[in-house]
Design goal:
The protein contains 11 helices and 9 strands. By secondary structure, it is of the alpha/beta class. It has 2 domains: 12-183, Rossmann fold; 196-289, Pantoate-beta-alanine ligase, C-terminal domain (Pantoate--beta-alanine Ligase, Chain: A,domain 2). A 6-stranded parallel beta sheet has the order 1-4-3-2-5-6, sandwiched between helices. α7 (134-149) crosses α8. Bound molecules: adenosine monophosphate (AMP). Adenosine monophosphate (AMP) binds at residues 39-40, 46-47, 49-50, 156-157, 159-160, 183, 185-186, 193-196. Residues 39-40, 46-47, 49-50, 156-157, 159-160, 183, 185-186, 193-196 line the site of adenosine monophosphate.
Length: 291
């Protein structure tokens, strides 16, 4: 099917697990390659870039919208997580997805649900340390979506790098025959990483959210100038964040190996810096490969 024909087709909206399983089986029987893009909705250009990427790498793209209760902690923002199903479906269709799968929480987690997927070491640092059980929720839903949609390739964003690394590990460990593809982070013109949570900021607060990007850019510049000590880089990043947003609460600034996510003290090759910062009560994360 040419890209042109593909655009003209109406997007299929599937809400039942059985309906999705049946459709995936039919697509596979027709010899088509399925690309999966899991999301929690309230889509922005970052999500749409994943759909476009999946579209180039597969024949049929399935985008999912599911605000996954299992990955939110008791004091997190599940209830106020932004939603816009109608707007999302229109965006998903325009980005070239063929199917949107929108399951109900009670179908994904029925009352007698009791099986979780837990990836071990790689979930103990960074986000896993700050948010207990978060990754257990992520790997459980992604494994379930893999089983329901049976993709050949699944696309995740670099924006949530640890999540992508955890999913890669789970995919390998459980033997899913799926390629995990990691797409670059899309940013606003000032550098702020696009995120559904950015809508929580008032106009006057919004510009302070760029603090995370400024800090990462500072790290990159210091390394370019020859700095090797992560302690000195972290100190400077902290200063940049506090200068941009004096009320910022830094949860972590971490330098880790790109593959294993184990901490590093001296900059060498293959280092990624990740950070989580609360700006006016909105918890933001970002990262950048430094070397
Ligand atoms: P979410 O809806 O926040 O769970 O995100 C769904 C997918 O979109 C995940 O794979 C994210 O990493 C990815 N994503 C979120 N923000 C961005 C961004 N700014 N650029 C690229 N991908 C993103």
């Amino acid at each position: 099917m040419t890209a042109r024909n593909k655009k003209k087709q109406k997007i299929k909206i599937i809400r039942s697990i059985g309906g999705m399983q049946k459709l995936s089986r039919e697509i596979i029987a027709r010899g088509k390659k399925i690309g999966l893009v899991p999301t929690m909705g309230f889509l922005h250009e970052g999500h749409l870039s994943l759909i476009r990427r999946a579209s180039k790498k597969s024949d049929i793209v399935i985008t999912t919208i599911f605000v996954n209760p299992a990955q939110f902690g008791p004091n997190e923002d599940l209830d106020k997580y932004p939603r816009d199903e109608k707007g999302d479906i229109a965006k998903i269709a325009s980005a070239g997805s063929d199917i949107v799968f929108i399951p109900k929480a009670e179908d994904i987690y029925p009352k007698d649900f009791q099986t979780y997927v837990n990836t071990m070491e790689i979930t103990k640092t960074l986000e896993g340390k700050s948010r207990p059980n978060h990754f257990r929720g992520v790997t459980t839903i992604v494994a379930k979506l893999f089983n329901i949609t049976r993709p050949d390739i699944a696309v995740f964003g670099m924006k949530d790098y640890q999540q992508a690394a955890v999913i890669k590990q789970m995919t390998r460990d459980l033997g899913f025959p799926i390629k995990i593809d990691i797409a670059p982070t899309m940013r606003e013109s000032d550098g702020l990483a696009m995120s559904s949570r950015n809508k929580y900021f008032s106009e006057s607060q919004r510009w302070e959210a760029v603090a995370l990007f400024y800090a990462l850019r500072t790290a990159k510049e210091m390394i370019k100038a020859g700095e090797k000590s992560t302690a000195r880089i972290e100190k400077e990043m902290t200063a940049v964040i506090m200068a941009t947003c004096p009320k910022a609460k830094i949860e972590y600034i971490a330098f880790t190996d790109f593959s294993t996510l184990e901490p590093v003290n001296k900059i060498k090759s293959n280092v990624i810096c990740s950070l989580a910062v609360k700006i006016h009560k909105v918890r933001l994360i970002d990262n950048m490969k430094l070397a």
